[in-house]
Fold:
Amino acid sequence: MPTITSGNSIVLFMDSVVGATPVLIGSQRGVTFDSTAEMIDISDKTSMAAQFTSGKQTDTITLGTFYVEGETQQANLRSAYENGTQMDVDWMDGSTDGVSGTIHKSAKALVSSLSVSADVQSPCELDVTLQITGGWS
Structure:
């Protein structure tokens, strides 16, 4: 039976603000971690079967949260997107509050997209995609 981790929080630190406190994505509804590798074709004429080797690896994180107009954390994310500000990212396992739990991995990231959706008779939601730069440590 697979292990199920209850709670994962992503804690963001803005590099450009000296002494900044963590910017926690509050009431995070969900998070998706995507890892992909470019495939390099190394096929030759000896076989009709394609052959590949792994190339550059890319990691992204997509976070979902409620959109709250005027919220400081969401304004900071918008500012980081507009200014290309690099952030420190901590992936916390077993954390529901962004403080407790253990740091699973850390990385640097840039905000690659922000999306606000507003469906009929439901709360507005914000999706944030972070592009990891330089890999996880």
Notes: The helical segments are 72-83. The first strand starts at residue 8 and ends at 14. Strands lie at 8-14, 23-24, 30-41, 52-66, 87-93, 102-117, 125-133.
